[in-house]
Amino acid sequence: MHRGFRWSTVFLLAGLVYPAAVWSQGNAPKIIRGTPKAPALSAPASAPRTVPGSAAKPPGEAAAAAASLQQGLKYLDAGDYDRAAKALQQALAADPHSVEANYYLGVAWAAQGDQDRAIDRLNAALRLNPDFRQAQVALGGIYNQQGLTLLRQGKPDQAARLLREAVAHDPQNDQACNNLGVALGQQGKYTESLAALERAVTLNPNNDAAQFNLGVLHYSLGDKNATVQQYAILTLRNPAAADELFRIIQGTSEVATPFRF
Hints:
Radius of gyration: 22 Å
CATH class of the largest domain: Mainly Alpha
CATH topology of the largest domain: Serine Threonine Protein Phosphatase 5, Tetratricopeptide repeat
Strand content: under 5%
Number of helices: 12
Order of helices and strands: HHHHHHHHHHHH
Distance between the termini: 19 Å
Number of strands: 0
Helix content: 55-70%
Structural class: mainly alpha
Shape: elongated
Largest sheet: none
């Protein structure tokens, strides 16, 4: 590794800021080259399975729960998250074992920015149905968002803990892998950082942020061949990012410690 290299400064160099992932996250912080926008939480392709052993509801209660659930879904579709949450709470009160009511209530609260309550309901849905993929993805998205916030605040150690949760819940989330790679790199955990960034570009070769960060990491580790390979990839995909990587290489060849906060 180059002497005196400041990993955490590297991620401040990128002049381009890309849209970030997950609901109302907004623009990615400049500490990370942002990643493409991910789909918002949505209805599952198929209804969650029935919970084994759950008692059948009397017809009246079942009808009330179903009506409240459908009303909540209509409000969700309309973007009226406050009313959606109220209707879904009624559905959940009528049927606490409803995977759908728990999941969609988590969606409604997440859309309002109430991440703690969203996590609680999504975990409840997963306890009822551990195979419910949409809930896993939703939790991964929330943890990724929280990790980004901590990176923005300059807390990579805390960010890494949440980003590990994000990747554990949604291993296919290339954005979370990229962000985890940044958090680990900022702590000097280069082997783990390399693994996370390589997974990010394997999952999504079009993730320019991860491609750039991987090039920076290879350079910081003194792997010239891998750095040149990343430069070539970025030249074809994102010339501005390639130019930035080239400037990093040029700068560090002349000055021992070019990057500072």
